[in-house]
Amino acid sequence: QVQLVESGGGLVQAGGSLRLSCAASGRTFSSYAMGWFRQAPGKEREFVASIDWNGDSTYYADSMKGRFTISRDNAKNTVYLQMNSLKPEDTAVYYCAADPNKFVVRRAPDYWGQGTQVTVSS
């Protein structure tokens, strides 16, 4: 019932920045917690960041704290991930996720996008 489409990925040099966007369908977007996950080749999908339904509360994986910022614009049905000080270890496919829980994305969110590739060169 919810469709998510990521964009904004690409190739960037180490230390650079990218801003990912996730466009969501559905009139109930503002009632969902939203989040970002990533998956590198040969590795399991890992949590990156989460934001609650009204954007008041955010949560980050430790390796992303101080570098990544998640935000949302409910009027545009869009979630963003600003990524600064990128490292080669950040290279992965980044996925947007939505969870009917209002406060935080859980271990298995209900909805996923197709992903956008982020490649950080050394």
3D architecture notes:
With 122 residues, the protein is mainly beta. The protein contains no helices and 11 strands. It has strands at residues 4-7, 10-13, 18-24, 33-39, 46-51, 58-60, 68-73, 78-83, 92-99, 111-112, 116-121. Strands 2, 4, 5, 6, 9, 10 and 11 form a 7-stranded mixed beta sheet that branches. Strand 7 and strand 8 (78-83) form a beta hairpin. It is globular. It starts with a strand and ends with a strand. The model has no long low-confidence stretch (mean pLDDT 94).
Strands, helices and their partners?
Layout: E1 4-7, E2 10-13, E3 18-24, E4 33-39, E5 46-51, E6 58-60, E7 68-73, E8 78-83, E9 92-99, E10 111-112, E11 116-121
The overall pLDDT average reads: 94
* Biggest sheet descriptor: 7 strands, mixed
- The beta-strand count equals 11
Low-confidence stretches: none
Can you summarize this structure?
By secondary structure, this protein is mostly beta strands. The chain contains no helices and 11 strands.
Labels describing this entry:
about 120 residues, mainly beta, 7-stranded mixed sheet, 4-stranded antiparallel sheet
